[in-house]
Hints:
0% strand; 74% helix; mainly alpha
Amino acid sequence: MIYASMFAALTAVGALIRIPIPVSPVPLTLQVFFVLLTGLVLGSRWGATGMAVYVMLGIIGFPVFSGGSSGVGVILGPAGGYLIGFVMGAFVTGLIVENLGKSTIATITAMITGLAVIYTAGVLQLFIIADMPSIRGAVVIGVLPFLIGDVIKMVAAFAVAKRIGSIIEYKEVHRIDE
Length: 178
């Protein structure tokens, strides 16, 4: 539970680093990096729990969403689907790693699938809320501007997960408390 809370806090910090994208109502942040990292390190159950804590903190009014925003209005807005997708994305990422192991191929597959889940939830809500004429248009403004940045975040999450995962596993096996 401590790790889940810590990753929720890290995701909140990642939301504060916000780069607006002119063609999209959804800004570029480090949230996806922390969502994928959470799933890789904590697995499905605790990864989803950490992201659910993050989303709930934002809903009840803590300024943890992009740019320090919060509230139900954010969840119901054009970027809300991505936030809901964070919970599902962390779960799926963790589930794949739990079932396929932590090989490079399994980890990459887990992150791509987790990101696809985030994008799917985000694009669907963006399509509905922004009253877009087509899903294709929602993909153009809700996915394409983020692909390069998200690939970079996946590479970083992969590297950090390998390091953090080994530290957490070592502590679990040797029962080390800090």
